[in-house]
């Protein structure tokens, strides 16, 4: 028997509790599209106080909660499959305050990433956490998954920019964590437990975010490279001389699909099996000269075959398309994705070993490699043959996961670099976390969420 929603209707505005079929479908899933959403209802609070009331109702009625941000995740972390109440933060989308002296902005969790980036620019500052879904992902969801993206090599993860959080725990208690303090040596920093917690401890309702100076002259190099084991040499050579803001990697197969789909010309004359896209802030002629010197050395030592450097912001944007359009281009083929990472010094070995596994186990499947190789994050995309049943295809991919994850475990890597564990990666958590770690994480969850109503079934 379903619980009565009357008490929730008393808490929320009339348009903020949805039960129609279209809304249940829209808010009950994320970008994985592998699960059938069956939520009880969709609650759209406008304040932390309303979130508290909703969580209290859920505890009183033994109803599970699925927190929902922009629903751009790829691990099923925001999927409601068992009659849960979805709490969507879409209406909590206001910038609340800005402190110029500390370059900190406080906003509600439903603020879109791109909205925060634009707010920073309007104040002559910069929010550097950036990725393909910045136009629809929300700050709360980014924090809950510790989102990374294309600038991690220079600017770090979302965690590095969160100065304070307001959260509602699974008990319905409000915690104000760190409050924007730069120095705070008063015991456990609970803020960092909620960053990356995937909504299993509570709901992030507000965040204080640090901003930084805008880059002045972002310049892009797109380089053709002959083989996988040259990637580390290339990264080391450039990192020794200049500070990179991005170091991306993709295969010829990936670039060919982008060129075909978007009718783009080949950016370099030489066709190569792999390409690297480097971005750096060319603040002086000296930095440009060092970048060109690294490029010339790479040609001489044959870990670079060809390349092109942007001469304007427009050209830099054009070169970025070859990397940023990959996910969109292959989405129609419903790829099976593995978002994985190792330390950068092990990237070449990992790529080579996994490439051999994939070639052996998936001889009839198309394989698309790309990723943020400067921080060791790789995206392995297996494309489903158009004539193959998708369930059969998914099962075939899952059977090979242990082989890939065995290599990952041996090299000390992660089964999920930036999309969380959710439902999709839950069976493989032990490849990246020890039994002791998992036990401690479960204990932490029980403390914040004793009735296990917060995103149950996710992560563990």
Automatic annotation (TrEMBL):
Source organism (scientific name): Kangiella taiwanensis
Entry cofactors: FAD
Identification of the protein by name: FAD-binding oxidoreductase
Domain FAD-binding PCMH-type: 35-214
InterPro entries: FAD-bd_oxidored_4_C, FAD-bd_PCMH, FAD-bd_PCMH-like_sf, FAD-bd_PCMH_sub1, FAD-bd_PCMH_sub2, FAD-linked_Oxase-like_C, FAD-oxidored/transferase_4, Oxid_FAD_bind_N
Domain of life: Bacteria
Family the UniProt entry places it in: Belongs to the FAD-binding oxidoreductase/transferase type 4 family.
Alphabetical list of SUPFAM superfamilies matching this protein: FAD-binding/transporter-associated domain-like, FAD-linked oxidases, C-terminal domain
Gene3D superfamilies named among the record's database cross-references: 3.30.465.10, 3.30.70.2190, 3.30.70.2740, Uridine Diphospho-n-acetylenolpyruvylglucosamine Reductase, domain 2, Vanillyl-alcohol Oxidase, Chain A, domain 4
Keyword set, alphabetical order: FAD, Flavoprotein, Oxidoreductase
């Amino acid at each position: 028997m379903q619980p009565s929603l009357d008490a929730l209707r008393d808490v929320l505005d009339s348009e903020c509790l949805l039960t129609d079929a279209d809304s249940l479908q829209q808010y009950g899933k994320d970008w994985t599209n592998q699960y059938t959403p069956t939520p009880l209802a969709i609650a759209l609070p406008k304040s932390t106080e309303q979130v508290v009331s909703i969580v209290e109702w859920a505890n009183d009625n033994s109803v599970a909660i699925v927190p929902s941000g922009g629903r751009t995740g790829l691990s099923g972390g925001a999927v409601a499959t068992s009659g849960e109440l979805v709490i969507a933060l879409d209406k909590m989308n206001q910038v609340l305050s800005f402190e110029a002296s500390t370059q900190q902005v406080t906003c509600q969790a439903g603020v879109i990433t791109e909205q925060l980036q634009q707010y920073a620019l309007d104040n002559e500052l910069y929010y550097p956490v950036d990725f393909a879904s910045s136009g629809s992902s929300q700050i709360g969801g980014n924090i809950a998954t510790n989102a990374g993206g294309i600038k991690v090599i220079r600017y770090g993860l979302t965690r590095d920019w969160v100065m304070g959080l307001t959260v509602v725990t699974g008990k319905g208690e409000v915690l104000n964590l760190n409050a924007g303090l730069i120095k705070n040596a008063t015991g456990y920093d609970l803020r960092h437990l909620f960053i990356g917690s995937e909504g299993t401890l509570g709901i992030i309702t507000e965040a204080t975010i640090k901003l930084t100076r805008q880059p002045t002259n972002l310049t892009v190099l797109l380089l053709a490279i002959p083989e996988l084991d040259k990637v580390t040499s290339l990264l080391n050579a450039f990192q020794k001389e200049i500070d990179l803001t991005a170091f991306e990697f993709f295969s010829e197969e990936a670039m060919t699909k982008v060129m075909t789909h978007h009718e783009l010309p080949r950016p370099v004359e030489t066709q190569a099996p792999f390409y690297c896209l480097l971005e750096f802030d060319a603040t002086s002629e000296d930095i440009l000269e060092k970048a060109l010197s690294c490029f010339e050395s790479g040609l001489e030592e044959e870990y670079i075959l060809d390349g092109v450097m942007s001469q304007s912001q427009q050209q830099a944007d054009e070169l970025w398309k070859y990397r940023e359009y990959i996910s969109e281009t292959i989405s129609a083929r419903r790829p099976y994705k593995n978002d994985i990472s190792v330390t950068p010094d092990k990237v070449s070995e990992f790529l080579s070993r996994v490439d051999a596994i994939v070639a052996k186990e998936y001889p009839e499947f198309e394989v698309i490699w790309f990723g943020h190789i400067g921080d060791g994050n790789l995206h392995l995309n297996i494309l489903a043959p158009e004539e193959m049943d998708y369930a059969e295809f998914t099962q075939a991919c899952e059977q090979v996961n242990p082989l890939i994850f065995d290599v990952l475990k041996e090299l000390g890597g992660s089964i999920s670099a930036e999309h969380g564990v959710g439902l999709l990666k839950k069976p493989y958590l032990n490849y990246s976390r020890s039994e002791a770690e998992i036990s401690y994480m479960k204990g932490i969850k029980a403390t914040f969420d004793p009735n296990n109503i917060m995103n149950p079934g996710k992560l563990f």
